[in-house]
Specification:
Keywords: Signal. This is SMP-30/Gluconolactonase/LRE-like region domain-containing protein. This protein is mainly beta. The protein has a single domain, classed as Neuraminidase (6 Propeller), CATH 2.120.10.30. It contains 4 helices and 24 strands. The strands form 6 sheets. Strands 1-2-21-20 form a 4-stranded mixed beta sheet.
């Protein structure tokens, strides 16, 4: 879950009329569903379901996919936000995570899901890395559905990144987290050249001799340029990694000194991780609710935690930032207030800004391209 998701307490603003909304946006009034005529038991409605407010339909929510819960979201959207499906597959979750834009090639890279039966990946076959041309995407962004018009190219990294799951830019290249494969394919950090022959180098594959469990997400701090990454359990929960051999944690790695330290612990299943643009805050997701092949435990976290980042790069003062009600791209303000949603009608595990005002969203069997007024936080380490 990159934080791979985005989700606000709505304040209905009578002063903002529907006429001021962009064509693809709609206001959602939370007061409409504060009290429902019927609330279904967890066996019938839970975090695996997408909530459709009273008076709305799947079709109406999809036709205007930018859902405004607070007027703050309008500044992010601008006057003409767009959402285009640019690729799809029948069942194979080709568009899962590790969305990263290489400005060196003006291409967007992403990875297939490792473990699901529909993918056939995990223990005997590694998930693949793919890419698209951002210039080709921009040429069809005026459409609602441009599936088949954008070339999705398989990236044959050498040596291969075993079940890639997270990625970020680093020193002109892309650094990936590998979930690993079986007993002997150790989870690792790989540095990959974004141009052919896509050669890779392993940066780190152990913590003082101990294998990591199943590396998940990764980010570079915008100031100190150290690499922070999460170690979760999804390789084991999806039957392609052994039982856990070390605590589930967030790590910090300095490639120049080789120092690896624990940055944070206390998670059920750590997942996405990122920093605020100024580097003063860190955000970590705990997706303990999702137990892989074991199903869901709805009493476990689906939460985002915020940390203060000290001057020395350590993380402190953890607090709950937000709780995610379902797996769709939600947008919060810096204080944890949900201000909007980008409605896909399905789960999204990861997205990323791919240049100013442009975003690519992975939704397992669909890939989306959005244009907004807001820019993203592009981090390119040059150390």
């Amino acid at each position: 879950m990159a934080l791979a998701t985005l989700s606000t307490c709505f304040l209905l603003l009578a002063s903002v009329s529907s006429a001021k909304l962009p064509a693809q946006a709609q206001f959602i009034d939370q007061r409409v569903f504060n009290v429902l005529n019927t609330t279904l038991p967890p066996s019938q409605f839970n975090a695996t379901n997408v909530f459709i407010p009273p008076g709305s339909t799947e079709d109406s929510l999809t036709k205007q996919p930018f859902h405004v819960y607070d007027k703050e979201f309008l500044k992010i959207l601008g006057n003409n936000p767009t959402l285009t499906r640019i690729a799809r597959s029948a069942k194979n979750p080709l568009y899962h995570e590790a969305v990263v834009w290489s400005n060196r090639t003006n291409e967007v890279f992403f990875a297939q899901n490792a473990g699901p039966p529909a993918a056939g990946t995990g223990l005997n076959k590694s998930a693949i890395i793919e890419k698209i041309s951002l210039a080709q995407v921009a040429a069809v962004s005026n459409r609602t559905d441009a599936s088949g018009l954008v070339d999705v190219i398989t990236v044959n990294a050498t040596p291969p990144v075993l079940n890639a799951n997270g990625a970020t830019n680093f020193r002109g290249q892309i650094v990936y987290t590998s979930e690993g494969q079986g007993d002997h394919g150790a989870p690792a950090l790989y540095l990959m050249n974004p141009e052919e022959p896509y050669n890779t180098t392993v940066l780190l594959n152990n913590f003082f001799g101990r294998q990591f469990n199943s590396l998940n997400d990764i980010v570079v701090h915008p100031q100190n340029k150290d690499i922070y990454f999460t170690d979760s359990l999804y390789g084991y929960l999806q039957d392609f990694r052994p039982a856990p051999g070390i605590q589930l944690q967030v790590y910090r790695f300095n490639p120049d000194t080789g120092a690896v330290t624990v940055a944070a612990d206390g998670f059920t299943l750590p997942n996405g991780f990122t920093f605020s643009p100024d580097g003063k805050h860190a955000y970590a997701t705990d997706t303990g609710i999702n137990q892989g092949f074991w199903g869901y435990n709805f009493s476990r976290p689906a939460s985002i935690y915020r940390y203060d980042v000290a001057d020395d790069g350590t993380l402190e003062n953890r607090k709950t930032f937000a709780f995610v009600n379902s797996g769709v791209p939600d947008v919060w303000n810096p204080h944890g207030k949900l201000i909007g949603k980008i409605y896909l009608g399905t789960t999204s595990a990861n997205f990323n800004f791919v240049g100013n005002g442009k975003m690519v969203i992975c939704a397992e069997t669909s890939l989306y391209y959005a244009t907004l007024a807001a820019g993203g936080n592009y981090v390119e380490s040059e150390m």
